[in-house]
Amino acid sequence: MLRGVFSAMITPFDKSENIDEQAFETLLNWTINKGTNGVFVVSSTGESWALSFEEKVRLFQLAVAVVKKRVPVIAGVGVPSTREAVRLAQAAQAAGVDYVCAVPPSFVRPTQDELIAHYSALAQATDLPLLLYNIPMLAGNVVAVPAVRTLAERFPCIVGIKDSSGDLTLLNDLLLQRRPDFSVVTGIDTLVLPGLLAGSQGAILGSANVCPELALDIVRLFDGGRLDEARTVQNRLSRFWLAMGLGSFPAPVKAAMELRGLPAGDPRRPIAPLARDQYEALRRELRAMGVMG
After folding, report:
1. Measured between alpha carbons, how far is residue 220 from residues 65, 100, 127, 230 in Å?
2. Domain of 199?
3. What is the CATH number of the domain that holds 70?
């Protein structure tokens, strides 16, 4: 069962906007050495929208080669076309990843029955466990709880969902209606502790690129019954989420990594790096969070 804190990895680019493979290796090792329970590559934070099919497959291959089974590798295979998503999932399996994860098709507006058909095709395309993924602020679509339940009942290989809706009521509903072995994890930094209190199995976070120690501490303190201390750390992590409004996603994540001395590079255009005043405001937030001097 998927449980713990997973990093939704950024994709580092060089000055020519090409994937910086050496930086990616450095970031994977840094993340694992921090104690995270797994990595999610070609995620929303990883600018999946800006990557070609070939680049995604290369990132899957690199992650598998670098991670060497130390933690699970989750591959993002969510694209608007079912046919392309199936092809990407099959390439991810060939690369040797441990899980695939798919955001609902974006731009188009499929019905719930069409979403069930989409995920059914993905579930049957590989032998890998599949994670569903709701992020309506970017995808514009939500796999509703009845559809999640239908899919989980129909396909044992559908083993969980990453819920980045930010809707604690939806998270609770998913938890109340889930299969006993079905993981519900949040993708929102402000909901790590509230999610655990509701019964979630953890979180897959963009902030784990920058400060995985905070989410890991929340889980550790929660497991130890030290809720007041966990709440204090949660308040520090929540500042990171609020600071993400300083620029267009994921520019603030990459800037925060650079501030911590990690090789993130700039986002791919049209997303611009932070302006100097935004960068300095982010520096102040990271200091207030206690994650840099």
Report:
1. 29, 26, 32, 8
2. 4-227
3. 3.20.20.70
